[in-house]
Amino acid sequence: MFFTLNSGDGVEACDSAGTSFMLDCSVVNLLIVYQNVLSASDSGTLEQLKELSSKRKAIEESFNGTSCVTDAIAREISGGLTSHCEQDIQKLEQYLPLLENLVRHVKMKGKNHQMICWISNLRIRWSSVLTSSSMFHIKGPKFYQVNDIYFELGMILFLYGAMLHERALEVLSSDIVQSAALFRKAAGVYNYLAQEVLIYLIQAEDRPPEATCRMSSILSLICLAEAQAITARKAEESGKTGGLLAKLHYGVTEFLIEAIDVLRVTTKECKAISSRLLDYILSCKTLHELKCYKYIAEGLQNNGKIGVAVGVLRQALANAKKSMPKEESWRSVFKMVVDDASVQLRKYEHENEFIWRERVPCNDELPLPEAVKFVTLIPYQPQKWERSLVFKL
C-alpha cells in the first residue's frame, strides 16, 4: 500500500524519488488446507472446503511472490485483466464470499469443543507490514498466530482494502473520478473491518496492528483524506475560488488530525507500530494545512487585508517548520512546498512594508480556517453466499 507525499495536491502516484510511505502488501501468510483440518460430513461441504483452499492458495502465492504462473496465463485466468493489482483484487473478491460463509457456520458452532480445536489446528498465521521490524526487514517477518477464524477474515479484508488503495493510486493519472471512488471504497472496507469484524476477534495478547479496530479506523480516515485531496485537486483544475479551495484542503487536514489522534492512542497500546506512519500522516497534515493558509492569504491580499495575509502565512510557515519529516525523500518534497509559501510571504511583506504599512496581527487575532468535507466512504457490502456446510461434530 502506498501513501503519497508530494508537492502538488497530496495525492498522486509515487515517483522515482520515492516520495511515498509504503506499506508493502506482500504480507506473508502460511498455507492453510481447510479440508485437511475441518472434517466434512458430505461431498458438497468437502468440495467447498477444497474451493476455499484453492482460492486461498492463489492469494498466498500472489502476495508471497511464489506463483509460477506467467503474466500471459494470469491475464487469461483473470478474464483479460492486465493490472497485477486488479488481478489480486479479483482473487480476494473470489475468496471473500467463501470465507464469510465459513465464518458464519463457525460462528453458529462457536462453542463446540471440536470446532474450537479445528480452528486452532488451522494455525492461522500472518506477518505484519505495520511494525517497525517489518518496515526494515529485521530478522525476517514475525508471524502472529491467532486461533480465531475472524483473524483470517480480518487480515484478508485488510489486504482487500490495501489493494483497492493501491489500485486508486494506479489509475490516478488517467481517471481521477475512479481513483476517488476506489479510495472511498477502501475507506468503507476498513470501516467495516473495524465495526463488524474485529470486534468479534478473541482478545489475543499478541496480534498484529492490522488486527486492531483502531488501526482499521486510522486507515479508513487516511483513505477518506486522499479522496478529499482528489476533490481539492479537481476544484483547483476547474478554477474554483480560493475560499473553497482553502476549505477543501482543511477538510483533508481534519481527516488526518483525527487519524493522528487515534494513532497516538494506538501506539501507546501497541508500541511495535512503525513511527514512519505517524511521521507521514503529520507531514501530509501539515502540507494540506499550509496549502489551506496559502489560499486564505491570497484571499485576504485580494481583499486589501495584506497585514492579516502576512500574519496568516507567518503562522503557517512557523507551524510547518516544526513538523519537518524525518525521512530525507519526504523532506525534499516538504521543502518545496515550504519554499513556495516563503516566496509568497516575502512578496506580501515587501508589498506591505513599502506600500500599505498595515499592522500584522498577533496569532490569536488571525482568522481560523474552516473545513468542508465532500467525501464519504462507500459502505462495504459483503456478498451473502448461503451455502450449507455440514461438519462431523
UniProtKB/TrEMBL annotation:
Stretches that traverse the bilayer: none
Entry superkingdom: Eukaryota
SMART domains: BRO1 (SM01041)
Pfam families linked: BRO1 (PF03097)
Domain BRO1, chain residue ranges per copy: 1-380
CDD domains in UniProt: BRO1_Alix_like_2
Family: Belongs to the BROX family.
Name the record gives this protein: BRO1 domain-containing protein
